[in-house]
Amino acid sequence: MLFVTVVGWVVVSVLREQLRDRLSEQTGREVTVGAVAVNPFKLAVTVEALRVTEPEGLVLVGCDRLMVNLRIGALVRGTWEFDAIELDGLEGRIAVDPEGEINFADVMPKEGDGTEGTTPWVLAIGRLVVRDARVEFSDASRVTPFATTLGPVSLRLEDFHTDGDSRAPYEF
């Protein structure tokens, strides 16, 4: 039992550091991660106090709690499938500067980056729950700058998937 506890503690510590370091590297922004918990029997990870901050220190995106429960079949099929994703206290900031550039444009895929013609990922989420989400929006490119906050918003979405069905009336 002691061995399992020590191995679990090491895995959680490494996961926390990897999450922080890789997200920082990919976004070019400081990332902070609070507690991380792993349930290997349910393939679930819970991350608390996750924040990605702008260079000036404002939060770009973050949440108080993120729980992701991977669907076991996803490992076999090579798709992104989740039994559940829960986000508590989601916060985000969208800002357009005076030149019309959005604050996270540098992390968005650019046209001609080699993704053309690739097969889109299949995403399936059994249950998505977002509680107490807020998004700040500001646009300094307008003659009269504009700013507002949307929230708090909570939502629940069941059985969402992006795999196509030729009979479906809509496409996402």
Can you describe this structure?
It contains two helices and eight strands. It has helices at 2-27, 73-77, and strands spanning 30-32, 36-39, 44-53, 59-70, 80-88, 91-96, 123-139, 146-161. A hairpin with a 5-residue loop joins strand 3 (44-53) and strand 4. The chain starts with a helix and ends in an 11-residue tail after the last strand. The mean pLDDT is 85.
Shape, per Cα inertia axes: globular
Structural class: alpha+beta
**Secondary structure tally: strands:** 8
**Uncertain segments:** none
Mean pLDDT: 85
Number of helices: 2
Major sheet description: 8 strands, mixed
Radius of gyration: 19 Å
Structural domain count? 1
Give the topology string: H per helix, E per strand.
HEEEEHEEEE
Q: Which strand-content bin applies to the residues?
A: 35-45%
Distance between the termini: 47 Å
The helix content is 10-25%
Compact description:
This protein has helices at 2-27, 73-77, and strands spanning 30-32, 36-39, 44-53, 59-70, 80-88, 91-96, 123-139, 146-161. By secondary structure, it is of the alpha+beta class.
